[in-house]
Design brief:
Elements lengths: L2 H32 L3 H4 L12 H47 L5 H13 L4 H11 L5 H24 L4 H9 L4 H12 L1 H16 L3 H6 L23 H21 L1 H9 L6
Length: 277
């Protein structure tokens, strides 16, 4: 092995070890703390529990306050599926139109899309708008908020990917008599599958893990999401760290599974359109 290749191998191995440690150490601490009794968990020691209480802690978490965690999983799943579906459909159509058609409005639209990435969300004006529409503290209003906050990122990804699709496909479909909707849904949309997987996984994790949005825009016990259930095990007088970390472990599993299974598709979708723009 040449010195250059040996150096690359060492750098790659060290990077892999560091990346693995950065991921496994926090996850291991969460798992061990969730497996301890309340007094042991309060010590915050990175050590094995004297008695494994993981199953007991998980059962107690799930049954707390009339199964509020299960209700939260249903609410979070509804919010995530609805928001991501809206993001995919709207951003795919917007990205296709922005890439394929040039008009005097393109500059303004591109400015607004970039502003959506740069300008932080305004909580008070958003609440005012939701109250004016009569959808504050409703799941529909929260779906609109999550969809709006994620659109800019999704539009940029779809627009970059559409640039890699030959225009000849559009022209051939038009010659065959396809209208705008048929052209998009039967010809273009199936070709967007790689970037669609990326958008679905990334935005699903973002929405599922969102804490601030539901806290401000979806208050109430009936509307609780999984991230807000963390409040159940913390208070001014009692901190149930073993239950808190058991809840964190339950919340972490769904996004982790998604990333493990769709890792390659995420990378492919993020890098598509990077060369040809």
């Amino acid at each position: 092995m040449s010195p250059h290749r040996a150096k690359e191998f060492v750098v790659g191995l060290v990077s892999l070890i560091v990346a693995t440690a950065v991921f496994l150490v926090p996850f291991g601490f969460i798992f061990l703390t969730a497996s301890k009794s309340a007094p042991e968990a309060a010590d915050f020691a990175f050590s094995l529990p004297t008695q494994w209480k993981l199953l007991d802690n998980v059962v107690e978490v799930l049954t707390t306050r009339d199964f509020v965690v299960l209700r939260a999983f249903i609410n979070s799943t509804t919010l995530t599926v609805s928001s991501v579906t809206a993001m995919v459909l709207i951003s795919a159509m917007a990205g296709y139109v922005l890439q394929r058609r040039s008009s005097r409005w393109n500059g303004l639209i591109n400015f607004l899309v970039m502003a959506g990435l740069i300008v932080p969300p305004a909580v008070v004006p958003t609440i005012w708008v939701l109250q004016g529409l009569g959808i504050f503290k409703t799941m529909f209003g929260m779906i609109l908020v999550e969809t709006t906050f994620g659109l800019s990122f999704c539009i940029l990804l779809f627009r970059a990917f559409v640039s890699t699709i030959p225009r000849e496909l559009d022209e051939a479909a038009i010659v065959d008599g396809a209208g705008p909707l048929r052209l998009f849904f039967t010809v273009i949309l199936p070709l967007l599958r790689p970037v669609m997987v990326t958008v679905i996984v990334v935005q699903a994790v973002n929405v599922f893990n969102d804490f601030v949005g539901p806290l401000y825009f979806l208050p109430g016990d009936e509307n609780v999401t999984v991230q807000l259930t963390l409040y159940n095990f913390q208070s001014m007088t009692l901190n149930q760290w073993n239950l808190l970390f058991a809840d964190i472990l339950l919340i972490t599993i769904p996004p982790l599974v998604m990333f493990i299974f769709f890792n390659r598709q995420i990378v492919a979708g993020m890098t598509s359109g990077a060369v040809k723009g």
